[in-house]
Design brief:
binds 2-acetamido-2-deoxy-beta-D-glucopyranose; Rossmann fold; 21-stranded parallel beta sheet; alpha/beta
Length: 798
């Protein structure tokens, strides 16, 4: 909860500058809305508020007004002295309230009924003079947990909750000084948890405790002395008629001598389950002859032993545990290296020896563990599979074997004679290699081989016909194993966190019967091959466990971190045939378009025109314009046969000499000067024009004048300035029509360097554009005066 962190920092700041315990800040007085000021409004939706260790001294009636959804409030480890339940008038949803470790002396219960949903109330470790329980508490119908503390306990204290059924009562009574006999027995609770008083050594307290609830936890038992009569003698009074059936001794310090007395007393009592948590073993650890047969105790758990004794005299004190006739025994987290074989047929059903330093010397040639069903040797120092096999070979009932977190490797043993009863084997976190598949229990159903050094699944697994779950996570597999190599009963396969980058498709066909496949956290290479894999989830939803979050691309770099779910490649980039087909298809379409264009739109003509246009542009650029433009009045002179005059006058001239006057043409009908000879006129016209346009057609060839004009133009302009000649082919001229003497014309016709008049209307625009481009030459301004008609610079610049 972000807001909480922010507010905490803020409030700490405030508290730092606030006098702790200042009386004027207490409940209901002139105290401003402090907490609500500190905690931003956004928080009012939150159900949990941890205000422990905040140095809070006082609460105001309005403080929790906004937190209408509040269900868990932790106010422990603060400086609160007085408390009124009225502060929760807006918090009817409150279920858990921890007020432990404050300085409470007064508590006003008259508003307690407001929080009628309260289940847990912890008032332990406060400064109450007596263990005061207000009568309103008994009205909280949902109350299950009550935490209290006191220096004296009287029957009267509990009168208000006497026989009111609770689930858990915690009494933090280290500092108890007075105890009235019979007080505890007024409680009606399934579990009673007391801390042992340090000073008051009243045997009555423990007697009553043993007869109050079915579950009793006694913590903080400290007897450092070599002999400590109290509390062991008091505890030893436990008998078959006591009420307690589950006894928990937590955080205890005592010599082994005293502990074995307690064990012996408990052995034949009402207690069926004994838990010893965090036991500090002091002074001595010696073998004590005790009778641990025929007890009522069914399970003994000793978890976390801190040994302060490092030497002992034979017989080994640990023998005591082998001799115990108890169904379930846990001796965990105790740093032991060994446990002896029971000297008689044991009734152990489960043996939990996890987190010790046990080696393969354990249970060597031990034939008295035939009832054992579960053996947990997790986190020990076992090394060889063969040693484990021989250790377990006589355990005829062994079903569950946990060998995880050892240093076991497969030693290529010839004898792989696992006990046939084994159905669960955990070899996780060892040094197992691929060869192990030749040496597995034949009837195993659940096999955990995760966190080992397996590189592939070889033959051998198909013989394990009952195998249901196989865990190969965190090994060095390169591919998902082929299920042909496995039993058809396999339902769960885990290959998380291996080196699988491109799972083969074969797996999918062969593993149809697998219900759950877990293959996340592998370095997937996101390419075409991987698509088959991503299809698994689409085809069988729910089959891939951890999908989609655990499945991400590792390679290539561009896709790193991308979820496989979101990874997509186009079908064509993966299928060469589709790609080829598409390329061929495109080629065919292009070809068809070209053929169609040639046939219906005369594409070659357009291309030729385009080519000419580009060439003209290029040439015009290179002309020495100044030289050219001297004395020119016209853009072009037109030469044509009389027979073509209709086209020239009606089509060519109107189109070129548009209204903008950008192009001026010289043609004999308009600009020929009377009085001069025709030849003179032609020469004048040609000389005064930049370009000469010849309209070629069979008629042109026949015309005498045209020949003359062409001849003259050839001589006047061709030579260096070939580009000043523009030829328009109005009608096709067969080669044979051109007389041999017109070698230049013949050459021109052959080279096809003419503009062809297209018959189709649609092409005309391009023809005109090309022609204009060919003519387009700027007439420089100094010649403008000579020109008798208006140019006004409207000529398209070249
Ligand atoms: C309240 O906070 C204290 C100290 O952080 C913690 O020990 C205790 O368990 C908390 N109580 C609840 C009900 O969470
Ligand atoms: C009540 O407070 C005591 C002392 O802080 C603690 O040991 C116990 O766990 C608390 N109980 C709950 C339910 O928070
Ligand atoms: C405890 O309370 C339950 C329910 O109210 C009741 O049945 C039972 O007899 C009580 N036990 C004792 C010892 O008072
Ligand atoms: C264990 O008991 C000792 C006193 O015997 C006490 O100081 C210590 O805080 C306790 N530890 C826990 C975790 O309760
Ligand atoms: C426990 O109380 C029962 C009666 O409720 C009594 O018979 C028995 O002797 C008591 N046991 C002890 C150890 O006080
Ligand atoms: C254990 O109890 C059985 C009967 O329940 C009895 O035959 C046997 O002698 C007892 N053994 C010991 C050592 O007390
Ligand atoms: C002992 O362990 C077995 C197997 O784990 C379990 O079924 C049984 O309930 C346990 N018995 C006791 C008394 O805890
Ligand atoms: C197993 O128990 C028998 C007695 O039933 C005993 O003779 C034998 O020595 C025990 N085996 C071991 C290895 O202690
Ligand atoms: C064995 O003991 C450890 C430590 O007490 C515990 O965490 C684990 O659950 C136990 N395992 C079994 C199978 O009882
Ligand atoms: C394997 O053990 C069984 C009993 O568990 C035994 O009958 C069999 O002879 C043993 N086989 C080998 C090769 O040791
Ligand atoms: C095997 O042991 C490991 C480590 O102790 C544990 O995380 C895992 O859950 C166990 N496997 C099974 C199937 O219980």
């Amino acid at each position: 909860m972000k807001w909480a962190v922010i507010s905490v920092n803020f409030s700490l700041l405030i508290y730092m500058f606030m006098p702790i315990n200042s009386k004027d800040e207490s409940v209901g007085k002139k105290n401003p809305n402090r907490l609500t000021k500190i905690l931003p409004d956004a928080s009012h939706l939150d159900t949990l508020l941890d205000l422990s260790h905040k140095n809070i001294c006082c609460l105001h009636v309005d403080d929790f007004r906004l937190f209408t959804k509040l269900s868990i409030l932790n106010l422990s480890h603060n400086q609160i002295e007085e408390f009124e339940f009225e502060v929760f008038q807006f918090n009817t949803a409150l279920e858990q309230l921890d007020l432990s470790h404050n300085k409470l002396t007064i508590i006003r219960c008259n508003s307690l009924h407001l929080i009628k949903n309260l289940k847990t109330l912890n008032l332990s470790y406060n400064n109450f003079a007596t263990m005061y329980i207000c009568k309103e508490i008994s009205l909280l119908s949902k109350l299950e947990y009550l935490g209290l503390s006191a220096v004296q306990i009287q029957k009267l204290d509990f009168i208000n909750i006497a026989h009111r059924e609770l689930r858990y009562v915690f009494l933090g009574i280290e500092n108890l000084q007075e105890y009235e006999v019979g007080s505890l027995q007024l409680l009606n609770t399934s579990k009673l948890h007391i801390t042992l008083p340090i000073y008051l050594q009243s045997p009555f307290l423990l007697h009553d405790a043993l007869n109050t609830s079915t579950t009793l936890e006694i913590s903080q038992i400290t007897c450092d002395a070599y002999f400590c009569d109290y509390p062991t003698s008091a505890l030893s009074k436990i008998n078959k008629h006591s009420k307690v059936s589950t006894l928990i001794l937590s955080n205890i310090t005592m010599p082994w001598n005293e502990m074995s007395n307690v064990l012996q007393a408990v052995w034949r009592s009402s207690v069926q389950h004994l838990y010893i948590y965090t036991y500090t073993l002091v002074h001595e650890f010696v073998y004590k002859q005790k009778d641990f047969s025929n007890g009522s105790l069914k399970s003994l758990v000793i978890d976390h032993v801190i040994q302060k004794v490092f030497f002992f005299t034979p017989p080994h004190p640990l023998n005591i545990f082998s001799e115990m006739l108890v169904e379930n025994f846990t001796f965990s987290n105790a740093d032991i290296t060994h446990l002896f074989c029971p000297p008689w047929p044991s009734i152990f059903r489960t043996l939990n020896l996890s987190k010790n330093r046990i080696t393969h010397e354990i249970f060597k040639e031990c034939d008295n563990l035939t009832a054992l069903e579960l053996l947990n040797l997790q986190s020990n120092r076992l090394q060889k599979i063969s040693k484990v096999i021989s250790m377990t070979s006589t355990m005829k009932s062994l079903k569950y074997l946990d060998l995880s977190q050892n240093i076991i490797d497969y030693d290529q043993t010839e004898k792989c004679n696992w006990t046939e009863s084994l159905v669960f084997l955990n070899l996780s976190e060892n040094r197992i290699t691929t060869e192990v598949f030749a040496c597995l229990p034949i009837n195993v159903q659940i096999l955990d081989l995760s966190m080992n050094q397996i590189t592939s699944v070889s033959k051998g697994l198909e013989h394990l016909t009952f195998l249901r779950e196989l865990n190969l996570a965190s090994n060095h597999l390169k591919d998902i194993p082929d299920c042909h190599l496995m039993s058809r009963n396999l339902r769960v396969l885990n290959v998380d966190d291996n080196g699988i980058y491109s799972p083969s498709v074969a797996f999918y066909q062969s593993c149809q019967y697998i219900k759950t496949l877990s293959a996340g956290r592998n370095p997937f290479q996101c390419n075409c091959e991987l698509r088959e894999f991503t299809h698994i989830e689409k085809m069988t939803p729910g089959k891939l466990s951890g999908w989609p979050d655990s499945y991400r691309c590792k390679y290539p770099e561009d896709f790193k971190g991308v979820l496989l779910k979101d990874f997509y490649v186009f079908e064509i980039s993966c299928n060469i045939y589709i790609l080829l087909g598409i390329v061929l298809g495109i080629l065919l379409v292009v070809l068809a378009i070209i053929i169609f264009s040639c046939k219906y739109f005369d594409l070659p003509w357009y291309i030729r025109m385009l080519f000419l246009w580009i060439r003209t542009k290029h040439r015009v650029k290179n002309i020495n314009k100044h030289e050219l433009e001297k004395g020119k009045r016209f853009h072009a002179f037109i030469s044509y046969s009389e027979e073509d005059s209709e086209w020239v006058k009606n089509v060519l001239i109107p189109n070129l000499e548009k209204s903008d006057g950008s192009i001026k043409l010289c043609h004999h009908e308009k600009h020929f000067i009377p009085g001069k000879t025709i030849v003179e006129n032609i020469i004048l016209c040609v000389e005064q024009s930049f370009k000469s346009i010849f309209v070629l057609s069979p008629n042109f060839i026949q015309s005498k004048w045209c020949h003359y004009e062409l001849h003259f133009a050839q001589h006047a302009l061709f030579g260096k300035n070939f580009y000043n000649l523009i030829l328009i082919l109005l009608d096709p001229i067969p080669q044979y029509l051109i007389p041999n003497k017109y070698t230049r014309l013949k050459a021109i016709m052959k080279q096809r360097t003419y503009l062809e008049w297209p018959k189709e209307r649609g092409k005309h625009a391009l023809f005109w554009a090309n022609l204009r481009e060919a003519i387009g030459v700027n007439l420089t301004s100094d010649e403008e005066e000579d020109i008798d008609w208006d140019f006004k610079g409207a000529i398209t610049p070249v």
